[in-house]
Here is the input.
Amino acid sequence: MSNSKILANGVDVYYGSKQALFGISMDIKEKEVTALIGPSGCGKSTFLRCINRMNDLIEICKVSGSIKVDNEEIISEKTDVVSLRSKIGMVFQKPNPFPKSIFDNVAYGPTIHGLVDSKNELEEIVHSSLKKAGLFDEVKDRLNEPGTSLSGGQQQRLCIARAIAVNPEIILMDEPCSALDPIATAIIEELIDELRLNYTIIIVTHSMQQAARVSQKTCFFHLGELIETGETNKIFTNPDNTKTQDYITGRFG
Amino acid sequence: MFFWSLVLIAVGIFSSFIYGRSRIKLNSKKQGTKSKSLPNYYAQYVLMWCLFPALIVYFSWAIFQEQIIQNIVISNFEFIEGAVYNEGLLLAEIRNVANNPSFADGKSIEIINAASHYSSLKQISQISFYTSIIIMMLLGALYASQKLKPEFHAQHTIEKYIQYILIFCSSVAIFTTLGIVFSLIFESLRFFAEVSISEFLFSTEWYPFIPIREGQTAAEGSFGAVPIFAGTFLVMVVAMCVAAPLGLLTAIYLAEYASQRVRKTVKPLLEILAGIPTIVYGFFAFVSVAPFVKAFGQSIGIDASPTSALAAGMVMGVMIIPFISSLSDDVINSVPQSLREASLGIGANKAETIKKVILPAALPGIVGAFLLAISRAIGETMIVVVAAGTAPNLTGNPFENVTTVTVQIVVALIGDQEFDNPRTLSAFALGLVLFVITLFLNIIALQIVKRYRERYE
Ligand SMILES: Nc1ncnc2c1ncn2[C@@H]1O[C@H](COP(=O)(O)OP(=O)(O)OP(=O)(O)O)[C@@H](O)[C@H]1O
Ligand SMILES: [Mg+2]
Here is the structure.
């Protein structure tokens, strides 16, 4: 297919001598939401962190195989990690705003990448990012207050705003709602649905309902292997694999 | 004498323990009920009641025995009319003769009598010492054994006793510190009775000599401590100029760039640097660095003295590097990994992440580390004694020799001086100032570090 955005092929990951992922191959389409599901410890986060090379931070972690983003190999010494990461935003499980003002949190990315030439332009980007993240109306009067003073759900949307401020093409989300209440979760899910129009999104989630609500494709991981991948509808109604069946019906995991 | 009494006490507590154990078992069997606590707690109870009275006896003898015996001996001494005695010397002589009969040759009869008096008192004291220990232990054990009933909560009591012991131990340190502080304050007050506070704090002449004989006006002392504080400050600034950048950069390298393995070896190595005796640093400063500084000064046309603020400060800077690097490394490390990931995830490179996220987040802790290092630098003595000089000198030129508070304290106290003149008393006033400054620096630093910790926990 022509519009595949991320193409993984035989990705193995080791933490020291322990293998965490076994030959993962996956094809992720542009401007779709892909959900990664599976029991705890099956390697969802590990795979997600391969895509923006976040695993580089873990000294004992070794990644092999091939992942192509826009047809360019990224599992290689030659990859420009910095530009890769500016193309791939990431939202973490726990909201992690910088201990800076709300404004500076969002302005951080555009500033270091030199995306703006003037203060006005920067303000423009910050405001529009906050708007896209559905946070602007709530914080427009207190952009100078510390980001850490917001509620958990607001912090998470701030992190989303921070990620989209550098205009990425892909957004990785690792259980973005696990620390939030149902209302904040609903807001973020709505947001994901809107963001899908412009971004390719991969989301790790433990909630079957969430996966069913927000994603078009679903990948089921188990013990470091990709068991099944397909249309979300199909995975949740008529999976091919009995393990998938067992997991989504809650028989294990 | 005190060794054998310790053996005696050990035997006593051991047998009291055994006794307590068997006694409670016997008692509960007799009553046919189970004891409220395990037998060991009853045994410990008896043991404590045996140990503490013995310790009280032990320490009262250790503290008071000699003094009391001496007083008795002196008060019974047959002073000869007209002769002049020095009590300290006399006592030393008596003790010598008593401990070593061969010294008796050629001593006067009064001394020999006093010596035998001394020996006999000592013997009496020793006998009563051992008997009191035994009696006290027996009494204690007897009292405790009356409580050895199964319904007695020995465990609760033991826990209470242990709490008392812990409180006692922690108060030892506190009271010692308080004692030191008060003695500092009182001696300083004595100093300020003779030298005005304003002269001490604001005058710039430090010439701590006092007339040895009446009317020796030429040697009137003057106690303006400004040059000393200035010297301390200058050395401290030089030290921080060396230690702050080196220590901080080391910390950044260790925390952010070094691999686990490097970090695990380098950090302890640096901390060993902090354990080198400071006199070794001082030696190094004097022998190697000071001549180098002098030569360097001459090569750029500055007349440097053989000991200088620069030499002492630089070596002191090296000495406090581990304080800064180790503490800052801890602080940088405790910046949550999630902030690093957030920054890198946006596509910031490592340098930007450190500069814009990690260091600002760690800043309060780093400032705290700096303050602790400064207070260490101000209190440091040996390096400056050896390498900075002892002559007060009000200057901003680091190539000149200066003197510091700690050096002047040393100078004031060496030589056999009585503690009754401003020269020696000035040591206490200087010590008090030093104490107040470092205390405040430490309090502020710890406060900052603490607040920082709370923010991320
Ligand atoms: N930093 C690490 N060091 C060593 N092993 C790790 C590390 N991170 C993850 N692992 C191991 O890799 C495996 C996969 O972990 P991963 O975090 O990817 O699971 P996950 O699917 O995201 O689980 P969860 O749903 O609980 O987040 C686990 O067995 C885990 O123990
Ligand atoms: Mg995970």
Q: What stands out?
A: The first helix of chain B runs from residue 2 to 31. The pocket of adenosine-5'-triphosphate (ligand 1) is lined by residues A 15, 20, 38, 40-46, 58 (CB under 6 Å). Chain B has a mean pLDDT of 87. Chain B has two domains: 2-152, 222-456.
